[in-house]
Amino acid sequence: RVQLVESGGGSVQAGGSLRLSCAASGYTYNPYSMAWFRQAPGKEREWVATIYTSNTYYAASVEGRFTISRDNIKSTLYLQMNSLKPEDTAMYYCAAKPGRPGLFFGRAGEYTYWGQGTQVTVSS
Questions:
Q1: Are 14 and 123 contacting, i.e. CB atoms less than 8 angstroms apart?
Q2: Which residues, including other chains, have CB under 8 Å from residue 25's CB and lie 6 or more apart?
Q3: How many other C-beta atoms can be found within 10 angstroms of the C-beta atom of residue 42?
Q4: Would you say 17 and 80 are in contact if contact means Cβ atoms under 8 Å apart?
Q5: Cα separation of 7 and 82, whole Å?
Q6: What is the structure's pLDDT at 65?
Q7: Cβ–Cβ < 8 Å for 65, 80
Q8: Distance (Å, rounded) from C-alpha 11 to C-alpha 46?
Q9: What pLDDT does 101 receive?
Q10: What confidence score (pLDDT) does residue 102 get?
Q11: What's the pLDDT tens digit per position in 66-108?
């Protein structure tokens, strides 16, 4: 069965960096759209970034600071997060869906598979 397992979360000070990983198994890694979402306490789940083949898409709040990438050989998705801000504090989830991104690729409902999440805490 499909499994997504995130890792790499932690606590950092503002301005610091973290790299999240999401190991995928149980399905053909390609061609799947992969994404990162995040959810802060008391807030809705928020789309962060999506990747499909070499195409990447970012939320305005993270563009220029975060980079989504994938290693097809390792079946692993990454999120490099630089210049972190306290407002980036959240549980981060990876998600996947078969095929190319749909029109509403920023909506959580578009994705079929989800990981359990990894916590990122940024202190000021």
A1: yes
A2: 2, 3, 5, 75
A3: 5
A4: yes
A5: 17
A6: 98
A7: no
A8: 20
A9: 87
A10: 84
A11: 999 999 889 999 999 999 999 999 999 999 999 888 888 899 9
Find, among 15, 11, 25, the residue nearest to 113 by Cα: 25
Give the integer Cα–Cα distance in Å for 51 and 101.
8
- Short-list 101, 119, 121, CA closest to 110: 101
Q: Would you call 82 helix, strand, or coil by DSSP?
A: coil
User: Which pLDDT score, from 0 to 100, does residue 29 have?
Assistant: 59
Closest CA to 101 of 52, 54, 66, 65: 52
Q: Which two structure tokens, joined as six digits, stand for 5?
A: 């397992």
Amino acid at 121: T
**Alpha-carbon span 62 to 84, nearest angstrom:** 9
**pLDDT tens, position by position, 15-54:** 999 999 999 998 765 688 999 999 999 999 999 999 998 8
Locate 105 and state its tokens.
């690729």
